[in-house]
Design a protein that fits this description.
The protein is mostly helical and 74 residues long. The protein has helices at residues 3-25, 31-34, 48-73.
């Protein structure tokens, strides 16, 4: 297994994890929210929601790093 194969598999796995994390955080985004009907009140992130938000940021950073490394390796 070459480095390119490893990076391709890692990119697929990390992107799948990123999609799952983002979809788990989406709430209250129905058709009305798409038309601007979303509640504009300020809410802070607490507990598990804050942890998932930070994990999502970490996964995005890892995804960008793996993608950049994959481009540089080819």
């Amino acid at each position: 297994m070459e480095l390119r194969d490893f990076l391709s598999i890692a990119t697929i796995l990390i992107s799948t994890l990123l999609i799952v994390l983002v979809l788990m955080q989406v709430r209250g985004t129905g058709f009305g929210a798409a038309l601007g009907g979303q509640d504009a009140s300020f809410r802070t992130r607490r507990g598990m929601q804050r942890s998932m938000h930070r994990l999502t940021i970490l996964v995005v950073i890892v995804f960008i790093g793996i993608s950049a490394w994959s481009v540089a390796a080819s």
